[in-house]
Amino acid sequence: MIPSFEILIDQLINGLTIGGIYALIALGYTLVYGILFMINFAHGEIYMFGSFAGFFVLVQLTRSGFAQQHVYLSILAAFVGAILVSSTLGVLLERIAYRPLRKAPRLAALISAIGASIFLQNVMMLIVKARMQVYPDIFPEDWIEIGSVSISTFQIFIILGSVLMMAGLYFFIKRTKTGKAMRAVAEDKDTAALMGINVDRIIVTTFAVGSALAAVAGVMVGMYYTQINHMMGFIPGIKAFTAAVLGGIGNVVGAMVGGYALGLFEAYGVFILPAQYKDVIAFSLLVLILIFRPRGILGEVVSERA
Amino acid sequence: MELLKVEDIHTYYGSIHALQGISLRVMEGEIVTLIGSNGAGKTTTLNTISGILKPRKGAVYFQGERIDPLRPHQIVAKGVCQSPEGRKIFTRLTVQENLEMGAFIRTDSEGIRQDLDRVYQLFPRLRERRRQVAGTLSGGEQQMLAIGRALMSRPKLLLLDEPSMGLAPVLVETIFDIISDINRQGNPILLVEQNALMAFLIAHRGYVIQSGRIVLEDSVENLQENEMVRKLYLGEEIET
Q1: Are the Cβ atoms of B101 and A193 closer than 8 angstroms?
Q2: Are the Cβ atoms of B93 and A180 closer than 8 angstroms?
Q3: In chain B, fewer beta carbons within 10 Å around the N or the C end?
Q4: What is the pTM of this model?
């Protein structure tokens, strides 16, 4: 069966929407890997906490009646609250779970990350109980018809919002003094310290920035899919990790490319595999990249890092 | 006036006793050289002064203030800046970004711009390549960048680690001329070198380090006359 043009375009929009979200989360993995050469496996939980922080803000504002009157201000407040919570969490995680192990074998930090991930899931389970929470539905969703294709304003918001966040990040890394220092620290910590760069502070900043991007993704997902729970970070976390590996772990542009590539693979994968096998695509892709091109699409030669 | 005083430092790599009581001084306006063979502890000494390594015993004073407990970026803020060996430039940053990193602790953007100009005057090649990624520079250009970068912090004391390493002889001369110029503008320098012949041309005083200990300390004139130095450090140079 040859899919119609409308369905192809629909899936393109879906792919870009979910791809942007994968990319935002993937950036957190790649930023931290670029600097510490470790995979922060608790990153999915940072994303989950961001989603819940936005949820709590919106619930409070809806109860007080504020959200009904000031929709956009409330949405902004949800994003700001999520960014604050996730960034703080990312910074604490670095301080408590990773910094004491920085000179330990890499496996130790990895195990610590997995432990932190399980811990955070359970903390959220204790707070909200193990059931689905429904995001307050305040975003005015419209459908825009372009020819025979209809796009939700929500998808446009996610697509543009994630592009904007990534453009901001790219500018931050390329142009600002802190961004340049981040790249210097990623390349050589001792030499960066000899330049007068406070390496620990740069590492903290990296965690904060990566966590903030995950928080934005968390709120977007909450508003888009409307249901969240304490386990929601697991699958997107691994998928975003796949996206980061696909693009070349440690490479910022690679994480963006990898996120969109994975989103589009999944969206168009439904033409080949039944929709319930969607997750299979991501994980098969991960296995294939690791076998055939471990440095990813844009990654550098891994041996340089040895 | 005494600028840097290193007092009986002992530094370890794990259980290896790398520095076994190093003491040295750098006075205002001086070029002091620390010579020794590979593995004698030259770089370890500099890294202990810079705070990358911590001495287990002994102390480092800068302008009378104890700096060895400080962290590396705090020591840079005090005015001690090291240009590390092996041209440790940031290969994925551009030439100009590398120089900007040298000025990381400074906030006077006007002064930074002037110093950038000064470095580009010293090394016109770097100006031509300022937008290029530093990893694409030749070995000599990378060494120029490393020295230029160290100058950007306007250090009160410049620590140079093997600026001649891996360079063609003609380039070594250029680099040493520039080091000498920098010193004449009033910057004291602690110069670590394997190439004693070149180091003696521009330094005022020198220390000889062997297996983690200072075995000799004198003016350059006297060191050049010293039999052991001639045999071990200058002789090699003449033969090869």
Answers
A1: no
A2: yes
A3: C
A4: 0.91
